[in-house]
Amino acid sequence: MKKRLLAFIIITIIISCLYKLLLYYLIKQAKQPKGFIGKKMTSIWSTYFTNLNQWTLNKIKIDNHTILLIVGFGGGSSISYIKEHYPYLRLYGIDISKESLKTTTKRNQLYMNQNLFLSISDVANQEYSDDFFDIVIAEQTHIYWSKMSKGLSECYRVLKSGGTFLVSCEIDKIRYHLPDYQDHRSFIDLLYTIGFDYVTMVTENNYIAFIATK
């Protein structure tokens, strides 16, 4: 009986350790997809977040004269949606993952020569000029930023005066990845601290969006 109990305890510990290792690996991949798993993950993202893309983009006014930046373009579904509706706007996108760049480029091959500029870059170290964009969008990505204040400050810097910064994601992901910001007011306060003049929040089911004006 004691041997069985000991064996059960050992097996339970091993399974628990393996689960934690797997979870850590998947979270790391979500932050910066790499290799075969990263490729599969970005492919899934390219369709999984379509509803969130549309919900997010319906919160702001875009036209063909807009200069827009997508921070963390992931699988490229938001870029596809924007280009389908506004083919002539100047659309820039940055992501830290090479696999995301490959997936997004492949999905949006039709638009690559139509004012679409994609690059590998960290949100906390952008190479764009000050006051360059009319709109900056960070969708389902800020939850993975290792330098939150720096990333937000960079988005503020590259945004034109009067421009819009839109952050959106699934609410349950905030609870898991950003427990310090479970109280949404704390994130709004941070945006004001960064320098934004006016911030509103919109929620619907498991979606949340913060819309900030510079």
What does this structure look like?
The protein is an alpha/beta fold. The chain has a single domain, classed as Vaccinia Virus protein VP39 (Rossmann fold, 3-Layer(aba) Sandwich). Helix content is 47%, strand content 23%. It has helices spanning 2-31, 35-48, 50-57, 77-85, 98-107, 148-158, 171-177, 184-194; strands at 67-71, 90-95, 116-120, 133-139, 159-170, 198-204, 207-213. A seven-stranded mixed beta sheet has the order 3-2-1-4-5-7-6, sandwiched between helices. α5 (98-107) links the parallel β2 (90-95) and β3 (116-120). The chain starts with a helix and ends with a strand. Residues 17-31 and 38-43 have low confidence and may be disordered.
| Widest β-sheet, arrangement of strands | 3-2-1-4-5-7-6
CATH architectural label: 3-Layer(aba) Sandwich
Q: What is the 3D shape?
A: globular
Largest sheet: 7 strands, mixed
Number of helices, counting only DSSP H or I runs of 4 residues or more:
8
- Any idea what the radius of gyration is? 19 Å
Beta-strand segment tally: 7
The CATH homologous superfamily corresponds to Vaccinia Virus protein VP39
The total domain count is 1
CATH class category label: Alpha Beta
Question: What structural class do the secondary elements suggest?
Answer: alpha/beta
- Helices and strands, in order, run as HHHEHEHEEHEHHEE
Range of strand content: 15-25%
**CATH topology-level name:** Rossmann fold
